[in-house]
Write a structure and sequence with these properties.
Layout: E1 2-8, H1 15-28, E2 33-39, H2 46-57, E3 60-64, H3 71-81, E4 86-89, H4 101-109, E5 114-118, E6 125-126, H5 130-147, E7 159-162, H6 165-168, H7 176-189, E8 195-199, E9 201-202, H8 214-231
Parallel strand pairs: 1-2, 1-4, 2-3, 5-8, 6-9
Antiparallel strand pairs: 4-7, 5-7
Bound molecules: guanosine-5'-diphosphate and magnesium ion (MG).
Length: 233
């Protein structure tokens, strides 16, 4: 079984379409999955909407946290709560293409430990602004060099991995980008070194607002990357 982890903070305008898209892809590809919504007590009734969606689909678990300590912490909580053998994490703002779910699952079943849906791999696309893309790409090249991991996107939420990795490592970062990077580097250090990527088509959210504070996230991501690569923790 696959556990699909979706952290949400005020995604009422996005979650119904996303869940519908995911359920359709699962059905079409004969995949068995649970959807784990990690909601940080959104004001816009996101949790209530997903509980209602469960009445229709029956495979959705809504977990509500009453701390708001970041998208990274929410992801980590979702990873740890997963019951499937394979975890696939996504953003909940319709920026990730659900059609990649079977491709990621297939790669894991072929023996890969982590499969990242990269915005920068050959054949991928993203509508990020040019400046934003340049900074992100440069940062990712740096992380790839210091970690020795040959992928092009360490800070994308969209990835699949073996569930057991979340038991073998301990992630401490709270913000989104640092945690997403930390997970991959610590997994490699713990021996889960079969890490690969597939190209994805990433579209920035149309509904709702971004909660990512890049000016804070960028230095934290670098600091954590250096710390993990050099000190191993
Ligand atoms: N549970 C939870 N989810 C969050 C939090 N911050 C962001 N998210 C979710 O994480 C995903 C990515 O966040 P987003 O704001 O789109 O960041 P961006 O894509 O980097 O601009 C979305 O699904 C958000 O709803 C948070 O503090 N708690
Ligand atoms: Mg987003």
């Amino acid at each position: 079984m696959i556990s699909i982890v979706l952290p949400t903070l005020n995604e009422a305008g996005n979650i119904t379409k996303l869940v519908g898209d995911i359920e359709q892809v699962l059905r079409k590809n004969n995949l068995k999955a649970e959807l784990i919504i990690v909601d940080d007590d959104s004001e816009d009734r996101t949790a209530q909407i997903t509980r209602d969606l469960n009445k229709k689909y029956g495979n959705i678990r809504t977990l509500v946290r009453h701390v708001r300590d970041g998208a990274g912490a929410a992801h980590w909580f979702g990873y740890k709560s997963a019951k499937g053998d394979v975890v696939i994490a996504m953003e909940a703002d319709n920026s990730c293409d659900a059609e990649d779910i079977p491709k990621i699952a297939k790669k894991i079943s072929e023996g890969w430990d982590i499969v990242v849906a990269s915005r920068y791999a050959k054949g991928a696309s993203t509508n990020k602004s040019l400046a934003n893309k340049a900074i992100s790409r440069l940062g990712n090249v740096f992380i790839s060099i210091i970690s020795g991991i040959q992928i092009s996107d360490f800070t994308i939420a969209y990835r699949g991995f073996r569930r057991e990795i979340a038991d073998k490592i301990n992630c401490v970062e709270k913000d989104g980008n640092p945690l997403l990077m930390e997970f991959i580097l610590k997994a490699k250090n713990a021996g889960y070194a079969k890490i690969t990527e597939i190209p994805t088509h990433y579209r920035e959210r149309v509904s709702g607002v971004s909660k990512n504070k890049l000016m804070k996230a960028i230095p934290r991501t670098f600091k954590a990357a250096v710390r993990i690569s050099i000190m191993g923790k």
